[in-house]
Design goal:
The complex is a heterotrimer.
Chain A lengths: L16 H26 L21 H9 L2 H32 L5 H10 L5 H14 L6 H5 L6 H12 L3 H9 L4 H9 L4 H16 L3 H6 L8 H6 L10 H33 L4
Chain B lengths: L6 H5 L14 H35 L2 E2 L7 E2 L3 H7 L2 H32 L5 H12 L6 H11 L6 H8 L11 H29 L3 H9 L4 H28 L4 H6 L11 H11 L3 H29 L4
Helix pairs in contact in B: 2-13, 3-13, 4-8, 4-10, 8-10, 10-13, 12-13
Chain C lengths: L1 H27 L1 H4 L12 E6 L5 H14 L5 E6 L4 H13 L6 E5 H10 L5 H6 L1 H10 L2 H5 L2 E2 L2 E2 L3 E6 L1 E5 H6 L11 H13 L6 E3 L10 H6 L5 E5 L4 H7 L2 H4 L6 E6 L4 H15 L11 H9 L3 E6 L2 H8 L7 E4 L10 E9 L6 H11 L2 H7 L6 E2 L7 H5 L7 H9 L4 E2 L6 H15 L6 H17 L3
Parallel strand pairs in C: 1-2, 1-3, 8-11, 13-15
Antiparallel strand pairs in C: 3-13, 4-5, 6-13, 6-14, 7-11, 7-12, 9-10
Helix pairs in contact in C: 21-22
Pfam family, one (chain C): SBP_bac_1
Organism (chain C): Streptomyces calvus
Keywords (chain C): Signal, Transport
């Protein structure tokens, strides 16, 4: 076997290429299998749901289950709420993480290390540990059972701040130094030199935030009590029906519907997302 | 991690006196002001919505409180109750067991796949594989667990049917203690390995080509090369992947909550599930807070231990 | 490079665009974000919390419009709370109370009757007495067992509007395959076992005769009832005569009291053990799924396709099976089999009035409205539950969904007057949790029963000692 590879840094393997690719294909199939089954089952009648072997391509596909979803829950209101919450959190996190990440990467100030450690430490705090006091804090602000009550506490993001710090650290230092020699102040250096380069990094933060909060279940479950304030994942719960009599197909159709925006964002944002996660693991 | 030095000191030709002896320059004051403004949203948010609630949790753990009546001071009674409650103790054991197995499996699967994907193949194919492995990460853990519950059903599920095709008798997933833990771990790893996978792909791309060539010249091939060359060079990435993996695994909730509801018995009940049940189902917020405080301490301890160990095993280039 | 450059500027404009859109969106949707646009949020409306999965948007509309016709002066807001089960639902209501946004009325199932009555509820006694003449028709139509299950320490807390007793559903296709007929009403536990064996013999390996879900209702507890025992020692509170004497004839008053008291756990009793050993033996013989085997949706799917022959369920399942596409003539229903007794288990639901309500008179009007026959007829159109009013169970109602022997649903109450509610003391959340937990362990093998039940007993004792 030849040692030369197409790209740099690729690892040479002793395994035959076809075996490698076949192995990967099996793994990919296992990874996507449950999703394929979900989509396919949502297009069959409930009575066919548990057919073995499963019909992956339904012989008589029906969108009855999707009609059921729209009849049983107010999909549009739920989607509006989810969109508002997710979009505002994403934008908010891009702002807070962009600013804080820059400060930690490129500005000098007192208590920098302990403050950064504090930010990272919040990753270690399980939501369930703080949810009751958070609820009381929101109550004192009059924000319980509002969408804002879901949005505002989600603005600070430890992982986003960490990512943006990495991102700014990865930019050439000489750019800022050159600007400073030209007499630019700290704000000007940020505004005209680094911020314009940060857009891809911010996109990563935005996509990550969207991804996480679109699927969020626990906080809305506790914090939102009026039906009008539910987000999509909460609304889907009622598809399970009284005493679990709801149809499997309808439940899965709801799952598929709620997947669509996340998948769309995945398709559009997967490259920055991948790059973001990839770079997070590279030590600098 | 290396800290970036202050640029002005280097850009000026004459060495400056120590900072303490002179008043901060306008630039330094500007920098501090900017830092304050930039950090304010994050730090204020963290203080109000994380630090204060943590303190609140600690305080709450010293009280009996059921939401309806006003809190009664309990001293350390909640902690005493927690340590005497076998369910809580078992949940800590389960969580640690889950963490070790899930993180190990997740890292192993991600590492093997990352190395394999980085091998020679058409670019489009590599991109397809990377997307596929990453895909489960964008789905909701709660929804996908509902789906998995159908697939893992012992009598009617697809998983046992597939195993039957290769001659394996139906596995009591979800209905036996070991099977349930295995199912929860598999479903969790299935959704999470994409994250470590991408970290490793990035780490592998960062290993200089020459290193491999040198290793090849020395006669190192295949597994041996990966063990002695790739792994040490990847160790910083491994550290990040395991730290994030462990922190997430210690907080696992949705998968066992939906798949097994903690059963059979207590075999898949995790600490976070106990917190949820004690607080929101039994309305014993004080006890729940005590469990939460203990979990928080555990997570900090495990993370600190990791960083300590990492000094011996992590090689920086 | 230009490629990455254009991508970068694209992303930048994208970010600007997103920020601008977010700003505009925030401004435009401020009312949505602050929930200021919810009608009746702070305007003195009567607020009723119902369980979301049981009350879809159509049901909420029906209830609201019907009420507005009757009481144009009372503003009403129905809040359908989404929750996976009752304990989840109760947790959310308590969260609302903690947030200072308590509803006036809460839809409460048997599971929560005493929890709410003890801490939060207001007895309806004085209104029931006051409006006795108006209510005579209601009580005449509702079985006293249902009413008694809504009493706590001598007072009535809810008017039941629906219930479900644990009867046995049978798949006719599977019966035919096994060469068996629908069992008679007085069938015994041994008849039941024999039927399962016949079903098993006549089917392939993908078939399990008996399927059940592990929960307080319809799981192991009906078997405890049939074997003449209960999870907790059961007695009746004194009182309640004011109600029985006013509304029920002498023969129906017999043995009624002021509501149930569930006290000492009896999980280590001989009959309790015997019940678990029986179920464990069914599992071991492959006649019955393990309790963690699945949830309701699983069950509808496998029952309607003939992979399960028998399962316990109430009237609500007729609607569920119909919705899943099972024709009315493909299944039927019979009473739960007799063991030492043939006492059945049921759970009901109605509206509870909270003490904190400032609109108690209006709330009482809603309770009466919600229990009217025309209201319930409009609400229960798909047989998603069994109406508490006997007169609503008609051949017409079950023509489309089946089953043929729909009379079983209500006759369960008449035929077995000792039929009783789910054991649900105020500590219900913990009681249910430990029951589910240890039932799973106990049924892993016949040998596991005894030690698991000892632990169940210990945990139940701890739970009952605690102040709910």
């Amino acid at each position: 076997m030849s040692h030369t590879t197409l790209t740099t840094g690729r690892v040479r393997h002793s395994l035959a290429p076809w075996a490698r690719i076949a192995g990967l294909a099996v793994c990919a199939l296992l990874t996507l299998g449950p999703v394929i089954w979900t989509v396919s089952t949502s297009l069959r009648t409930p009575a066919e749901s548990f057919d073995l072997p499963p019909q992956i391509v339904p012989s008589e596909p029906t969108v009855e289950a999707y009609r059921g979803v729209f009849a049983q829950i107010d999909v549009w209101l739920l989607a509006l709420n989810s969109t508002l919450v997710t979009a505002l959190i994403a934008v908010g996190q891009m702002i807070t993480a962009g600013l804080a990440g820059y400060a930690f990467a490129r500005l000098e100030f007192r208590f920098k290390k302990p403050l950064f450690a504090l930010v990272l430490a919040t990753m270690m705090v399980p939501l369930q540990v703080t949810i009751v006091p958070v609820f009381l804090v929101l109550k004192s602000m009059g924000l319980t059972d509002t969408l804002l009550g879901l949005i505002i506490p989600a603005f600070p993001t430890a992982f986003g701040t960490f990512l943006m710090r990495q991102y700014f650290l990865g930019m050439p230092k000489d750019l800022g130094e050159a600007a400073m020699l030209d007499g630019a102040g700290p704000w000007r250096v940020f505004r005209s030199v680094y911020a314009p380069l940060a857009a891809p990094g911010l996109a990563i933060v935005g996509v990550l935030a969207f991804n996480y909060h679109w699927n969020e279940f626990f906080r809305p479950l506790i914090l939102e009590t009026s039906g009008q304030n539910y987000t999509l994942p909460l609304g889907l719960v009622s598809l399970q029906g009284n005493l679990g009599t709801g149809s499997v197909s309808v439940v899965l159709a709801g799952v598929v519907l709620s997947m669509i925006p996340a998948v769309a964002v995945f398709v559009v944002g997967q490259r920055p997302l991948r790059e973001g996660i990839t770079s997070a693991g590279v030590n600098r | 991690m290396t800290n970036t030095q202050i640029p002005p000191a280097r850009s000026q030709s004459a060495p400056r006196p120590p900072a303490a002896l002179v008043r901060p320059s306008a630039r330094e004051r500007g920098t501090r002001l900017l830092a304050t403004v930039f950090l304010a949203p994050t730090i204020v948010g963290i203080v109000v919505f994380t630090v204060v609630p943590i303190v609140g949790s600690v305080v709450l753990s010293l009280f009996h409180w059921n939401v309806i009546d006003s809190p009664r001071f309990a001293g350390a009674a909640n902690y005493g109750e927690v340590f005497g409650d076998s369910t809580v103790l078992v949940s800590f054991r389960n969580t640690l067991l889950f963490m070790v197995l899930a993180v190990a499996l997740q890292l192993l699967v991600a590492l093997v796949l990352a190395i394999t994907v980085n091998g020679r193949m058409p670019l489009w194919l590599r991109s397809v594989f990377r997307s596929a492995f990453f895909f489960p990460l964008v789905l909701s853990a709660a929804s996908i667990s509902v789906v998995m519950k159908y697939l893992f059903n012992q009598d009617f599920g697809l998983v046992n049917w597939l195993l039957g095709l290769v001659g394996i008798a139906p596995v009591p997933w979800l209905t036996s203690e070991n099977g349930a833990m295995a199912a929860v771990i598999l479903v969790y790893v299935w959704q999470q390995f994409g994250f470590s996978f991408l970290l490793f792909v990035g780490g592998l791309n960062n290993i200089p080509k020459e290193v491999h060539e040198a290793a090849a010249l020395d006669g190192a091939t295949g597994l041996r090369k990966h063990l002695h060359v790739t792994l040490p060079l990847l160790s910083p990435t491994l550290l990040v992947a395991s730290v994030v993996g462990i922190i997430n695994a210690l907080q696992v909730f949705e998968q066992p909550y939906v798949l097994t509801n903690g059963g059979p018995g207590d075999s898949t009940r995790t600490v976070v599930m106990v917190i949820y049940e004690t607080a929101f189902e039994q309305l014993r917020f004080g006890t729940a807070s005590a469990v939460g405080v203990l979990l928080f301490v555990l997570i900090m301890a495990v993370t600190a231990l990791q960083f300590r160990l990492s000094r011996r095993f992590v090689h920086y280039q | 490079m230009t490629d990455s450059h254009t991508r970068r500027s694209l992303l930048r404009y994208g970010a600007y665009g997103a920020a601008a859109a977010a700003l505009a969106g925030t401004a435009a949707s401020w009312d949505r974000l602050t929930a200021a646009d919810i009608p009746g949020r702070d305007d003195g409306s009567l607020v009723v919390a119902t369980l979301g999965p049981a009350y879809g948007p159509a049901a909420v509309r029906t209830l609201t419009e019907g009420f507005a016709e009757q009481y144009p002066d009372i503003k009403l807001r129905i809040n359908a709370v989404q929750a996976v089960d009752w304990s989840d639902f109760f947790a959310k209501i308590l969260t609302q109370i903690a947030a200072g946004t308590a509803p006036d009325l809460v839809y409460v199932a048997t599971e929560g009757v005493q929890l709410f009555a003890q801490r939060l509820g207001l007895p309806l006694d004085r209104w029931v007495r006051r409006d006795a003449d108006e209510l005579r028709e209601y009580f005449a139509d509702v079985h006293p067992s249902l009413v008694e299950s809504m009493m706590y320490e001598g007072s009535l807390y809810q008017l039941p509007v629906e219930f479900n007793a644990a009867d046995m559903y049978l798949n006719r296709q599977v019966l035919r395959r096994a060469g068996a007929d629908r069992p008679p009403a007085d069938w015994t536990r041994d008849d039941f076992t024999a039927l399962l064996r016949r079903m098993k013999k006549s089917s392939d390996s993908h078939f399990t005769p008996y399927f059940w879900t592990n929960r307080l209702w319809g799981g192991v507890v009906p078997w405890l009832f049939a074997n003449g025992t209960n999870l907790l020692a059961e007695s009746k509170a004194p009182g309640g005569d004011w109600l029985w004497d006013t509304f029920y004839p002498a023969d129906q008053r017999q043995g009624r009291g002021g509501g149930f008291r569930w006290t000492t756990p009896q999980a280590t009793g001989a009959r309790f053990e015997e019940t678990y050993e029986y179920l464990a033996s069914l599992i071991e013989e492959g006649l019955c799924t393990r309790p963690e085997g699945g949830n309701g949706q699983n069950l509808v799917g496998v029952f309607s396709t003939g992979r399960v022959g028998v399962t316990p369920a109430g009237g609500f399942w007729a609607g569920g099976l119909h919705q899943a596409g099972m024709p009315a003539d493909r299944y039927d229903v019979q009473y739960f089999p007799r063991w030492r007794t043939q006492r059945h288990q049921f759970g009901g639901a109605g509206y509870a009035l909270l003490r904190t309500s400032k609109r108690q008179e209006e709330a009482w009007e809603f309770i009466k409205y919600a229990a009217r026959k025309d209201t319930l007829t409009r609400l229960f159109t798909t047989n998603q539950t069994t109406p508490a009013r006997r007169s609503m169970l008609t051949a017409d109602r079950y023509r489309e969904t089946g089953p043929d022997h729909w009379r079983v649903f209500y006759d369960t109450l008449d035929r077995f007057p000792d039929t009783g509610p789910i054991p649900a003391p105020p500590q219900v959340a913990e009681v249910e949790q430990v029951l589910l937990k240890h039932t799973g362990t106990a049924l892993s093998s016949p040998r596991a029963v005894r030690p698991a039940l000892r632990r169940l007993q210990g945990d139940l004792e701890k739970a009952m000692e605690r102040d709910a």
